[in-house]
Design goal:
Blueprint: H1 3-18, H2 24-28, H3 41-46, E1 52-56, E2 59-60, E3 64-65, H4 72-82, E4 86-90, H5 100-109, E5 114-117, H6 123-131, E6 136-140, H7 146-158, E7 162-167, E8 182-186, H8 199-204, E9 212-216, H9 222-231, E10 235-238, H10 240-243, H11 248-259
Parallel strand pairs: 1-4, 1-10, 4-5, 5-6, 6-7, 7-8, 8-9, 9-10
Antiparallel strand pairs: 2-3
Helix pairs in contact: 4-5, 4-11, 9-11
Amino acid sequence: MTILEEIVAFKKTQVAALKQKATVQQLESLPAFNSPVHLLSPVLKAGKTSGIIAEFKRRSPSKDVINDSASVALVTKGYVTAGATALSVLTDTKYFGGTLDDLDIARDTNTIPILRKDFMVDEWQIIEAKAHGADIILLIAETLTKAEVAQFAKVAQSLGMDVLLEMHDELGLSKISPDITIVGINNRDLKTFSVDLDRSIRMLEKLPSEVARIAESGISAPATVVQLREAGFQGFLIGERFMKYPDPGQACADFIKACTQNPPQ
């Protein structure tokens, strides 16, 4: 069993248990469920911001602990001050050290779009994400069938949310449905965790023109962002690059500033 298969199997068991503790009606009664949604896709398409989606991530299966002492409020506020276009917040506890409390804090602290970064295996999680202030959900093509992607995306769209479909290779292209608003190409193979930074550019021309397009994982140099932007990408999801510093917000600010000064390589 790969680490990705292990995570998904655990997530299905976990969600089944959580559904017994909170009904859809209870989630819909939470204040954040009826809060306005901050859409990311039109902002990315407009191309007038940094395009940086800055991530709050304590640890990961591939890197173990990255930063386990950072304050969600301070880091995410720092990202916004730095000029990030959106935030990504890990809510998986077992493998990434995140919680829904992190999402709540990020939402209470900021007004820019927020992606709930987790492994979606049930429609219930989408309602849960909206109830905790998320504007965008993540669907991972490798972990879902084409029918599941279409159904989950339809539910999210009915709530007014953006839907990010993440894929690692061409097999994910067939799973793009009309309700997908953002497509992300993950440079990291979620089965082996190896990184291929050229993957995004190779996949770019195969993406539908109507979706916002982002590159994910393994982006550590500002010049890489410049190159990917020149190729046609509109957003760049970056987590570990910032979180490994004592002050992730300042690291993000320095990175964004460098992106405006470095020519494509």
